[in-house]
Amino acid sequence: FAGNNSDFLKGVVAMSGLPPADRMEVCFAGRSNVGKSSLINALTGRKGLARASNTPGRTQEINYFSLAESHYLVDLPGYGFANAPLPVVEKWQRLLKQYLSGRASLRRAFVLIDMRHGIKKVDEEILSLLDNSAVTFQVVMTKADKIKAQEQDKVLSQVRDKLAKHPAAYPEIVVTSSEKGGGIATLRAIIAKLE
Ligand code: GDP
């Protein structure tokens, strides 16, 4: 997918705004600051592409990107904001549930987890939602360059233990570093192979 054939398409605030389900799509979720924009940019080979989704006002939208004219890449807003107003959170959760349970072309959700922190309580909420929506999800560890291999093993075994409790979890964990490029080709290959 490398190259400049990825583009921001649109921000969606209601199910009626979704593009036609004419391509396979994958979505990316993760708590704020997990490194989601950096990963999307590394994946598409376009620096700054995913920045649009991080600007204020865009944070409650489902952001659609085209990926190599064959897939949609869907950027779900970062979760875990401490002080978003409740009605905003509720409206967003409704849309997220509708999207996850009603999007036939959604092939897989990638849930980003910070290599330094492992799976936290805020992450568990989205994992349960994915279980309940029967959307296969795969964990992508981010910022692997920030910790040593030995510590990585510890976090990975914690993540494996937690994933064992989630029926929708895909067992293989992808370890990435957007900074150093590690794991990006693997992730690209995983998406390309989805059917
Ligand atoms: P988002 O809020 O999830 O979109 O997170 P960003 O992509 O904006 O990243 C949050 C911060 O983490 C930024 O300062 C990034 O430079 C940094 N970051 C993201 N990915 C990596 C990585 O792989 N390695 C390192 N060392 N820092 C990263």
Structure commentary:
With 195 residues, this protein is an alpha/beta fold. It has a single domain, classed as Rossmann fold. 33% of the residues lie in helices and 21% in strands. It has a seven-stranded mixed beta sheet with strand order 1-3-4-2-5-6-7, sandwiched between helices. The chain is globular and about 45 Å long. It starts with 6 loop residues before the first strand and ends with a helix. The mean pLDDT is 90. The site of guanosine-5'-diphosphate has 17 residues, from helix 1. Belongs to the TRAFAC class TrmE-Era-EngA-EngB-Septin-like GTPase superfamily. EngB GTPase family.
Give, in spatial order, the strands making up the sheet with the most strands.
1-3-4-2-5-6-7
Name the poorly predicted regions: none
Helical fraction: 25-40%
| N/C terminus separation | 16 Å
Derived structural class: alpha/beta
- Count of alpha/pi helices: 5
Strand content: 15-25%
Assign the CATH topology.
Rossmann fold
**CATH class (first level) name:** Alpha Beta
In total, the number of domains comes to 1
Assign the CATH architecture: 3-Layer(aba) Sandwich
Radius of gyration in whole Å, from Cα? 16 Å
Quaternary class: single chain
Largest sheet: 7 strands, mixed
What sequence of helices (H) and strands (E) makes up the elements?
EEHEEHEHEHEH
Q: Which molecules are bound in this entry?
A: guanosine-5'-diphosphate
Protein name: Probable GTP-binding protein EngB
Function: Necessary for normal cell division and for the maintenance of normal septation.
Cofactor: Mg(2+)
GO molecular function, one term: metal ion binding
